[in-house]
């Protein structure tokens, strides 16, 4: 979780949690934030914006006060996109490893194993990963004081929350948070290599503990139908537990997840790496935001009970 010393002291503090989801997930976040801004709800004003993977890249842009209404997020050209061959297998292996970590008394051991696979995987170069348009767009920007990005040390398995006090370039920290094992290479920071914060959790919602009002945006359906593969059921149960922990600690929480139209577009989450879906994903999310407005506003503008 965020260090208590970094939590704003005022009880009405608000946090925005943005989960992982690849380029289509970035479009989901961006479209929702655009639609809510159309409705008068500016999530950029959060006291804390914490992003994981796709959510880290979007979170940094929001914290920099970039207006999401200008259109769909930048699409990484195919020349710098992850290799398609083996991506599905990499995702399957990643889910299995992450699910094992959920049930382990020592999850860092599982995360180290995933990190080792990431370091050994054949991907584009680290320089290419850092040069992709979605990351390059924030290169050289100052670190916003209200923004954090999550990552995992590939060698030690340590969970890391990057912030302004770490003196790490914003683009490099976000690239490490979005370094999907087997798809993008680990990112070098201060002598270590870091991989996607989604290895620990696709949301890392528990990092918002201590905030009175929390909006959580998940790029995936958080239900666990019986027909879903066991790793997905395990991981979704863990995500729901994170959210309930926030509520148990007194936070008002509103969770936004994709509606049926978005799920149909993405094959229920199986096509989140498909750049071709980005424009339509943005449009659908912006439309969904209007239906989410009242629920979000009820939490965002509420007066917390001490």
UniProtKB/TrEMBL annotation:
Gene3D superfamilies: Cytosolic phospholipase A2 catalytic domain. Residues 16-209 form the PNPLA domain. The keyword Lipid metabolism applies. The active site is at residues 53, 196. One of its GO terms (biological process) is lipid catabolic process. Keywords: Hydrolase, Lipid degradation, Lipid metabolism. Pfam families: Patatin. A motif (DGA/G) lies at residues 196-198. InterPro entries: Acyl_Trfase/lysoPLipase, NTE, PNPLA_dom. A motif (GXSXG) lies at residues 51-55. One of its GO terms (molecular function) is hydrolase activity. It comes from the Bacteria. The keyword Hydrolase applies. A motif (GXGXXG) lies at residues 20-25. This is Patatin-like phospholipase family protein.
